[in-house]
Amino acid sequence: MGKYLILSVALGFALSTILVTDVFATEDGATILEARCSVCHSSERAKSKQKTPEQWEATVSRMMAKGAQLTQEEKQILLDYLSKTYKP
Ligand code: HEC
Question: In the chain, what are the domain boundaries?
C-alpha cells in the first residue's frame, strides 16, 4: 500500500510538472512576443503570418540581427510558440 502511494504521488508530481511547464511555455511565448517583437513594429506583423518552424527560425534570427533582444532560451520558447500558434 505504502509503495503504491509513493508511486502515485511521484507520478502525479511528474504529470503536473509537465502540464505546468507547458502552460508556462505558452504564456511566456505570448509575453515574449508582445514585449520583444513590438519594439520596431506591432506584434501584428508576426501574428498575421503563418510559417513553418524553419521559416520562423529564419525570421526570428533575422529580427535578432536587426536588434531584437532575446536570450537563447527566450528565442526557443518564442519559436515554439510561434510555430504552434501561427502555422500554415
Ligand atoms: C530592431 C527592430 C525590430 C525588432 C525588435 C523586431 N523586428 Fe520584425 N521587422 C523589422 C523590420 C525593419 C522589418 C521589415 C524588413 C524585413 O522584413 O526584413 C520587420 C519585419 C518583420 C516581419 C515581416 C517579414 C517576414 O519575414 O515575414 C515579421 C514576421 C517580423 N518582423 C517578426 C518579428 C518578430 C517575431 C520579432 C521578435 C522576435 C521582431 N519582428 C522584432 C524590425 C524589427
Answer: 2-85
The answer to whether the beta carbons of residues 52 and 87 sit under 8 Å apart is yes
For domain 2-85, say whether CATH 2.40.30.20 is its number. Answer: no
Q: How many CB atoms lie within 10 A of CB 45?
A: 13
13-48 pLDDT, tens digit each: 776 666 655 555 566 899 999 999 999 999 999 999
How high is the pLDDT of residue 4?
74
Q: Which of 44, 51, 63 to mutate to test the pocket of ligand 1 (most atoms within 8 A of CB)?
A: 63
63 Cα–ligand 1 center, Å: 5
**pLDDT at position 40, please?**
97
Greatest CA span in the chain, whole angstroms?
60
